[in-house]
Amino acid sequence: MIRMLFSVIWWFGFSVAVSLMLGLYVGVEFIEKYVGVLFLAVGIQHMVMLVILGFFAIFNERDDNIEVGNRVATMGYLHTLIGTSVALIMTSKFGGAEMIEHIDTIIAPIGSALITSIIGWAFGKEMERERYRYKLDSTEESDNALEFLAQKVRKAGLQIEQSSNRWVESIEYSSTQLVVSSEKLEKTINSANQTSQQSIDELSRSFTKLYEQMSYNLEAMSKTVERDLQSSSEETQRVLSSSKEQFKTQFEQIERQISSVERNFDATSKDANRVFKKSIETFDSGLGQMNMIAKEWDKHIKSMKKFSTHSESALENLTEHSQ
Hints:
- This protein is an all-alpha fold.
- The protein is 91% helix and 0% strand.
């Protein structure tokens, strides 16, 4: 309350002095007639009220003595400047012999201005002394220390919470990337399986068609040879039979090779499926570990919040006891 009254009086007195100076400048007769007494009374009364209220603000409301003293000294200096301006304005109103006749009217505002400056600097510098500075007792110092500690704890809790949120976001982003990668890998493996199966089917059809064509050609050739060589000797027939058996043996080997190729393609497809399943299991395990880390961070944040709440309640209890 006193601090607010001090500020109001400071600005009110300053406004009154400036208004009187402006009134003198525009030629108000009442101000010109009582210029010496008027500015002296306004300046001294204003400074006395500021000095009294300043000491009350320092002692009763524990206001900053440096700031209060500085404002008192500043107002004394401002009154000096206002008084000097008034003297110059009065000098401009008189010329020649009239200036000599009204010399007291010109000098009076300067004298009042110097008095206010003396009051302001004397009491203002007195207020700024170390003896008037308010010193905290042990209870207030403890309250300030606990409040500072609570602020630090709250700040640390917020930083940890922000860090954990960033961790959660990073884990969620990594999980999303793993899911996307697994989906891409699954599509790639499925496409490779389809391509491999198509290749196996085409190769199988080609070998089957070739085998059928060769069997047909061999059978046709055998019939032709049999017809042409019916009159040949038995030795010739044995040679033909042997050649036929060799052809059959070669065709059987070709058929076994086709079966082997099909088995190899089937084994490759099964291995690719096993690799894909193992990759999916690895991704699922990674996601589970990341979720466990996120839960641990949540527990840590909750414990820090509980600690911050206990610190604040302890600070409130200590503040109530100190009061």
